[in-house]
Amino acid sequence: MSSTSLFTAHSALAPYGWDQAWADQFAPYAPEGLLPGRVIRVDRGQCDVMTAAGVVRADTAFVTPHDPMRVVCTGDWVAVEPGGNPRYVRTYLPRRTAFVRSTSSKRSEGQILAANVDHAIVAVSLAVELDLGRVERFLALAWESGAQPVVVLTKADLVPDAATLAHLVQDVETTAPGVPVLPVSAVGGDGLDVLRAVVGGGTSVLLGQSGAGKSTLANALLGAEVMDVQATRDADGKGRHTTTTRNLLAMPGGGVLIDTPGLRGVGLWDAESGVGQVFSEIEELGRRCRFHDCAHEREPGCAVLAAIDSGELPHRRLESYRKLIRENQRIVAKTDARLRAEIRRDWKRKGAEGKAAMDAKRGRWA
């Protein structure tokens, strides 16, 4: 069967993102009698796969290597056996994008949250004080994944007036250059049409902390009470984990949505280019510095520090940039011996500079 015929034969998968390119990727597995499908849920070595004939339950034992980056995850396109008890997933197709964070373990491991995503919707609640640093962290991971980030400010109906809402939107827009920032009220429906237009037709992953209103937003986008919703705590606006697994669901107006559990920890995972895109203005200023390896600390001719002094660049942005760069270097250094050596040399250099400064002070005081 040609890949064109294969695409047509499984056209019922079109609402889940099936296209000619996926048919081309799957073509080598068709002669084996395997079926194409998209993983809509993974749970303890089992997964639910949407095929042209409907949802099937399959075991992932054949594709569960020691590398956690290569396990089957929600959003994967897979080749699954046509029958059997148990039925097995034989392989997954090469991923177009992958949203990855570092695990909480001390080992150098990444965890894939979702695959083949076009848009990363970062849900941020307006019911609590904005944490711009956390927004920047989510955006770094989103850019690194290859998806287009979208920041959705949920619970906009709780903001007392339009002027305050406009100010909050502007704060986030400054934090998220090149990213759409949309205030939305899932209760009143405000902003939902704009969000549907932005994310429709592709695959979107919904990200955010517990209590950010993700499940309520998911229900609004899906047009049904699909996800359970729990009230947030009045004391701090935080919520319990309403969603406990990652689920992929087709939206009625086109496109699919992957809802995720609330993320308490959002560790970077080799996200240097993502950090660079979040802080694009700092990267651009850095190219104007006198020294190409300027650390933007005390160097003469530093364009970044000059922008801080002039008020062009908020000091908070530079501190957040430094923090995420350092964190990312630590993650990469766990598997990169050359980078570990560079970091050690940098520590020694800074230590020597600090010692020299103290010696100079003591000399003046003597």
What does this entry look like structurally?
- The chain has about 375 residues and is of the alpha/beta class.
- It folds into 3 domains: about 5-95, OB fold (Dihydrolipoamide Acetyltransferase, E2P) (Beta Barrel); about 100-260, P-loop containing nucleotide triphosphate hydrolases (Rossmann fold, 3-Layer(aba) Sandwich), CATH 3.40.50.300; about 270-365, Orthogonal Bundle (Ribonucleotide Reductase Protein R1, domain 1), CATH 1.10.40.
- The protein is about 35% helix and about 20% strand.
- Helix 3 links the parallel strand 8 and strand 9 (about 150-155).
- Helix 1 (about 5-10) crosses helix 2 (about 20-25).
- The radius of gyration is 24 Å and the shape is globular.
Sequence-ordered SSE layout with sheet pairings:
Blueprint: H1 3-9, H2 20-26, E1 35-43, E2 46-51, E3 54-59, E4 77-80, E5 89-92, E6 98-102, E7 110-115, E8 119-125, H3 132-145, E9 148-154, H4 162-175, E10 181-183, H5 192-199, E11 203-207, H6 214-222, E12 247-250, E13 256-259, H7 272-278, H8 280-286, H9 303-310, H10 315-333, H11 337-365
Helix pairs in contact: 1-2, 3-7, 7-8, 10-11
Number of helices: 11
Order of helices and strands: HHEEEEEEEEHEHEHEHEEHHHHH
Largest sheet: 6 strands, mixed
Average pLDDT number: 82
Count of all domains = 3
How many runs of DSSP E, i.e. beta strands?
A: 13
- CA gyration radius, whole angstroms: 24 Å
From the structure provided, what is the oligomeric state, counting identical versus distinct chains? Answer: single chain
The residue ranges in which pLDDT falls below 50 over 5 or more consecutive positions are: 230-243
- Helix/strand-derived category reads alpha/beta
Query: Gap between N and C termini, in Å?
Result: 88 Å
Give the CA-based shape.
globular
Strand order of the largest sheet: 10-9-8-11-13-12
What proportion of the residues is helical, as a percent range?
A: 25-40%
CATH superfamily of the largest domain: P-loop containing nucleotide triphosphate hydrolases
Tell me which CATH architecture of the largest domain applies here: 3-Layer(aba) Sandwich
CATH class of the largest domain: Alpha Beta
Strand content: 15-25%
| CATH fold title of the largest domain | Rossmann fold
